[in-house]
Amino acid sequence: MTFSTTPRASSSGIFVSFEGGDGAGKSTQISLLADWFTRAGHEVVVGHEPGGTEMGQTLRQLVLHGEDMSPRTEALLYAADRAHHASTVIRPALERGAVMITDRYLDSSVAYQGGGRDLSADDVEGLSLWATQGLLPHVTILLDLDPVVGVGRVGRSLDRLESAGAEFHERTRQAYLGRAAAHPDRIVVVDAAGSVEEVHAKVVAAVAERLALDVPASVAVVDPGA
After folding, report:
1. Residue 108 marked ligand-binding
2. 4 marked as binding residue
3. 115 marked among binding-site residues
4. One pLDDT digit (tens) per residue for the chain, 226 residues
């Protein structure tokens, strides 16, 4: 399956996605980056997949807490969630010039269904590109962490994917790293093993560099303890 891509949004908006295994700290780093952009004077919209819309909540319940399903069924449900999220949340935000930050996007499907579930990575990517009409982030931050450490950080009952086992999560991690190596112009790998402050500083530096942003010293880094 092939589909032409649109690596940059055709508007003044900024599209940033965060990827990584469970427990890598995506939620924390997204919140800090959103604060950083807000302090710089931007409107910021934060989303997540699956479940970033009302319809997506139903799909999220199916893929994360529903009955066992085939890898193809799982991939199709994620693509449906992404199609709706892109058309109703992401594109409208970009079209009005906002900063759109999403917790997971296309790369998650390629890593989890293409790597973890052993589906064809090309097929999974093509499905998501079709679903989103080729929309890709300007920059993707991959928070890389040993999956054993990451799962240990999850402070709640594990969902269907989180409890898939060590081999599954290691395959997913390697799929992520392979994808980052193949798309260095978009995907930045950030070591997520450091402190919250250290990781945030690396995220800000990566985003500013990739987007060629002129960052005032006053908003260079958000203090997580402030």
Report:
1. no
2. no
3. no
4. 333 334 444 458 999 999 998 889 999 999 999 999 999 999 999 999 988 898 888 888 887 777 778 889 888 988 999 999 999 999 999 999 999 999 999 999 999 888 777 789 999 999 999 999 999 999 999 999 988 787 667 655 555 555 566 788 888 899 999 999 999 999 999 999 999 999 999 999 999 999 998 766 556 565 555 5
Q: Does residue 25 have a known ligand-binding role?
A: yes
Give the global pTM: 0.85
Domains of the chain listed by start with CATH number: 14-219 (3.40.50.300)
Q: 22 among the known binding-site residues?
A: yes
Whole-angstrom distance, CA of residue 86 vs CA of residue 104:
12
Q: Which residues contact 162 (CB under 8 A, 6 or more apart)?
A: 22, 151, 154
**26 a known binding residue?**
yes
Q: At what angle do helices 71-85 and 121-132 cross, to 10 degrees?
A: 30
